């Protein structure tokens, strides 16, 4: 009598070893399992997916918020009193965290697709929790310092929604492979039905999502208006110190059609340019007048103001990381800059045949020029020799004072109705991009109200406003917008409808095909009989399912018919299962 001892030879699985080793520190075959994952590990997988989605949202926010990085640093400065680029640690931590979580999620999905049991290593669990808590704390901090910036997400979707939709549709369609593999299993459970229902609802929502999109750049090319004019907001502050003559010159060199400046009034009635309420950030007042560095900028006379240096801070702090691109000649010019007067800026605008937009800060009540600030401004306009029609003001004063500046074009920096605009005699609006809606812009332009949108520093936002019909934008980066001769993307309604419907139909076909294939494959596995499995042992099959069924059959035979003293042995010289005549009795 001959007793056959079944043997099983395993092929090396380098990829599986890498996936399970990095994810769960299970480098050896005996450490791995193809049983269902525990609820605890499934909970960690859900936490990993949640961390990924939160970081994806966080990374997208910072991607579009690059338009307002200077505003964020100003918010931090107003809270802390010290200037520093706080975006560097935020962007660095976001990039590292997103890369790490994405890598772990890919390994987890490979586990599922390969049929391996999830078992996240404890070091990675700490890393996931640390990344999640860091991201949540960052979101809370930004909400506290910069709550208004969340509006940029809704604005950006007007430009990115079609592309985000295609990306999401592709991702969810690809996930159908994993969903189908889980749902069509022989065992039936309520959770499978829940998973299938949730997946179906997500797919349906994605298929219909374009119905809710409002994208100005989905339009007829012939309806596109002229390229919006670019106003140099405080000149070109990324290339030279803000509100200085060098900065305004740079703005004009890079195609700015107008100049925008922040105006304050000195004690002796001289309008000068300064964004902040003090001189601490942009001058060397801490060296010249250390005891007065916290005083209001308008409390100094013009002689004192003129003695301050307004260029050294730019070279030392390098707020936009552009100082290393300056030539030695530019550095010398910047280092010798002083606080600019309104007259000097208007003279430059007059020589360049451009216009000016003035944000005038009214002096405090105790200031000697509190009631005469408008006369000081008019005096500066007349002295500069520029036409009053080319000067617009956004006067930060009650409406009772607007009548005193009849010689200048009066504007407002708030969103108003057409009735209010006519009542106040306003001819232009200076609006934040979050307040400049497409329909409102059309209404303003139809009523001969000029609209300027600020701040616009990124090509995607400039393109979006161009499609919306905005006539002019105020920018800190005219050198960037100069390189945008046409909207980044422009598509007709018919073209987008075709892409939308086609992508939906392709997705439906792929999902149905994947579910049918998984069902057919599982049916084939269920109909596999032992004779087929034993015969297939002499061929080099690499199918994971067939190998699993071989192992189950072998160990089933051991438990049912073989003695406990018989052991499995490996024959590495062959890549397939063999039988040996280990015990021969006559």
UniProtKB/TrEMBL annotation:
Coiled coil: none
Keyword Ion transport: no
Keywords, alphabetical: Glycoprotein, Hydrolase, Membrane, Transmembrane, Transmembrane helix
GP-PDE domain span: 228-485
Gene Ontology biological process terms, A to Z: lipid metabolic process; positive regulation of neuron differentiation
Membrane topology: Multi-pass membrane protein
Transmembrane segments: 42-65, 88-110, 122-142, 162-184, 191-213, 498-517
Pfam families: GDPD (PF03009)
Cellular location(s): Membrane
Molecular functions (GO terms): glycerophosphodiester phosphodiesterase activity
Entry's Gene Ontology cellular component terms: plasma membrane
Family: Belongs to the glycerophosphoryl diester phosphodiesterase family.
Protein name: Glycerophosphodiester phosphodiesterase domain containing 5a
Source species: Labrus bergylta (ballan wrasse)
Upper taxonomic lineage: Eukaryota, Metazoa, Chordata, Craniata, Vertebrata
């Amino acid at each position: 009598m001959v007793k056959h001892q079944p043997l099983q030879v395993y092929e090396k699985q380098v990829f599986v070893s890498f996936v399970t080793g990095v994810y769960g520190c299970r480098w050896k075959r005996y450490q791995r399992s193809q049983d269902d994952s525990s609820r605890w590990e499934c909970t960690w997988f859900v936490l990993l997916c949640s961390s990924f989605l939160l970081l994806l949202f966080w990374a997208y926010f910072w991607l579009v918020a690059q338009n307002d990085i200077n505003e964020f640093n100003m918010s931090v400065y107003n809270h802390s009193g010290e200037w520093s680029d706080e975006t560097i640690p935020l962007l660095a931590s976001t990039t590292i965290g997103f890369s790490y979580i994405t890598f772990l999620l890919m390994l987890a999905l490979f586990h599922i697709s390969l049929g391996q049991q999830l078992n996240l290593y404890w070091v990675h669990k700490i890393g996931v929790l640390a990344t999640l808590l860091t991201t949540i704390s960052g979101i809370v901090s930004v909400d506290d310092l910069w709550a208004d910036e969340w509006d940029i997400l809704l604005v950006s979707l007007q430009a990115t929604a079609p592309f985000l939709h295609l990306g999401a549709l592709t991702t969810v369609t690809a996930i159908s492979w994993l969903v189908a593999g889980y749902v069509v299993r022989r065992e039936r459970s309520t959770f499978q039905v829940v998973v299938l229902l949730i997946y179906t609802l997500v797919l349906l929502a994605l298929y219909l999502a374009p119905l809710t999109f409002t994208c100005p750049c989905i339009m007829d090319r012939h309806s596109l208006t002229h390229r919006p004019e670019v106003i140099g907001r405080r000149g070109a502050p990324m290339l030279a110190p803000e509100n200085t003559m060098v900065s305004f010159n740079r703005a004009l060199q890079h195609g700015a059609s107008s100049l925008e400046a922040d105006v304050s009034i000195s004690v002796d009635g001289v309008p000068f340019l300064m964004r902040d309420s003090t001189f601490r950030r942009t001058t060397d007042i801490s060296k010249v007048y250390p005891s007065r560095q916290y005083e209001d900028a308008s409390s100094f006379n013009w002689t004192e103001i003129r003695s301050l240096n307004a260029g050294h801070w730019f070279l030392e702090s390098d707020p936009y990381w552009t100082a290393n691109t300056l030539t030695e000649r530019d550095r010398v010019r910047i280092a010798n800059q002083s606080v600019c007067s309104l007259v000097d800026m208007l003279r430059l605008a007059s020589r360049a045949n451009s216009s000016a937009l003035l944000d005038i800060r009214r002096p405090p009540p105790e200031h000697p020029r509190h009631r005469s600030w408008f006369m000081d401004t008019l005096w500066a306009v007349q002295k500069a020799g520029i036409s009053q029609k080319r000067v617009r003001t956004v006067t930060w004063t009650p409406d009772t004072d607007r009548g005193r500046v009849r010689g200048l074009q009066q504007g407002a920096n708030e969103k108003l109705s057409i009735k209010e605009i006519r009542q106040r005699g306003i001819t232009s609006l200076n609006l934040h991009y979050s307040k400049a809606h497409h329909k409102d812009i059309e209404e303003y332009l139809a009523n001969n109200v000029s609209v300027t949108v600020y701040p616009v520093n990124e090509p995607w936002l400039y393109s979006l406003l161009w499609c919306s019909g905005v006539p002019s934008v105020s920018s800190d980066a005219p050198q960037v917008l100069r390189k945008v001769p046409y909207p980044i993307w422009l598509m007709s309604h018919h073209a987008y409808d075709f892409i939308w419907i086609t992508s939906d139909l392709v997705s439906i076909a792929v999902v149905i095909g994947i579910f049918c294939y998984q069902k057919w494959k599982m049916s084939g596995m269920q109909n596999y009989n032992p004779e087929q499995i034993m015969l297939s042992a002499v061929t080099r099959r690499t199918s994971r399912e067939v190998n699993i069924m071989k192992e189950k059959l072998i160990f089933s035979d051991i438990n049912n018919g073989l003695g406990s003293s018989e052991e499995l042995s490996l024959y590495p010289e062959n890549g397939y299962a063999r039988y040996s005549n280990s015990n021969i009795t006559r």
